[in-house]
Amino acid sequence: MDSPKYSSDSYTLAAGTSSDNDSPRTPYAVNETLRLLQSDDLSSKIEAAKQIRRLSKTSHRNRRHFSSAIPQLVDMLRSDSVESAQSALLALLNLAVKDETNKISIVDAGALEPIIGFLHSDSNMQEHATATLLTLSAASVNKPAIVASGVIPFLADILRDGSPQAKVDALMALYNLSTHPDYCKLIIHAEPVPSIVYLLKTCKKSSKLAEKCSALIESLVEFEEARIALTSEEGGVLAIVEVLESGSLQSREHALGTLLTMCQIDRCKYREPILREGVIPGLLELTVLGSQRSQFKAQTLLRLLRDSPNPRTDIQPETLENIVCNLISQIDVDEQSGKAKQMLTEMVQISMEQSLRHLQQRAMVCTPTDLPITSCASEVSLK
């Protein structure tokens, strides 16, 4: 049996070498396959399931044609034949990809119970079942039924002990289910944070996996149990800070949101653990080069991290430079402090350059068209 091949956003299983594109023969192939599926012969049913998997791999039209086969395929999941169950599971997985109606129909047909049972099977069936749950959980309508099935602890177990691919799929399924606060509580009770931190520590910080890890952690740290788990895990806060420094734009926003949420909820408790991991350089970069939203959040977090969170208007204006200088003065003289000071210098330089560009652009707008303009920047500042 071929191994599953996944794209970053949706899951499609590899099929044979034959072309899966629509052709004039497709309607006949669909009808013949559906006829085989109705057969009492098990080998014919298995062959039909394999054909459905192949024909629906890249054809949305065929996914629609084969939607009527979902109840029979779900019945095959309960077969004593491993080959029958696996063929049906892979066919259902392909039918669910990029098809919201099929996702809902599969759950409505009672597929969750046998699929969850496969989570305890050998590694191949576990991977297929986890990928299917991930795909089904992408439909908002399915989320209550999936959560009610009790699958969250099993996904957390796979996140800890599953194969590398199953771990990734379990993580993304939990991320899909974390969009509701009540579901977040159930996820936290399954204690997934150590496993998420491990994945985050060992993956490339600019990867899609790091983005999903940081996004899930951002959702969970709204709750005290998750904050305690993150700060208790060795290297937990450091992993978030590393994503803040070198992750993708989306990952950095999630990491920033995580740290900001922690400080806003309990500044006294989390200020020191965050500062200790050298967060200032990453925050300084975001205050200048991040999106407008990231710049605002980074400046807000810098204010929360300084010694006094209240504006010191009686002493000096609350400029970003003053906030950062205050923070640097509290850090031990080491590599972190030196890096922060260098970043501050660069930040001021970039800010000056950006201000100059804005002035030049305004001058372009205000200058009569008959006057020549030289040395005007054509680029706008990064947002």
Automatic annotation (TrEMBL):
Pfam family, one: ARM_PUB
Domain U-box residue range list: 142-308
ARM repeat feature ranges: 68-110, 110-151
PROSITE patterns: ARM_REPEAT
Stretches the record annotates as Disordered: 1-28
Keywords: Repeat, Ubl conjugation pathway
The UniProt record lists the keyword Repeat: yes
Gene3D superfamilies hit by this protein: Leucine-rich Repeat Variant (1.25.10.10)
SMART domains to which the protein is assigned, alphabetical: ARM
Compositional bias of kind Polar residues: 1-21
Coiled-coil regions listed: none
Name the record gives this protein: U-box domain-containing protein
Source species: Daucus carota subsp. sativus
